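Posting this for the archive.
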Amino acid sequence: MEMPEACPVCHQTYEPEPGFYYGAMYISSGFSTAVLLGIGFLLYYLANDPPLWVYVTTVAVAVLAVTPLLFRYARAVMLYGVGGASFDPRYLSR
């Protein structure tokens, strides 16, 4: 959950204003919904529509397992999509 204030390579500010990442919660919710739907379709078609408890358990375990990734990528989408940050490949070689 801790983030540095700026990138050590390009000095991009990670938090342009207080409360900037509140919108990332909605993005993370969308990612979680995509995981839920993906696992639901896979279970329905590959496991021949198992009982409800299998759906609930599988989705809960999967979402809890990928929550750190969802959190990080939601913040990145928020920073690049709304914050105006841009990717510069010149910094990859450093």
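Helices lie at 24-46, 52-81. The chain has a mean pLDDT of 85.
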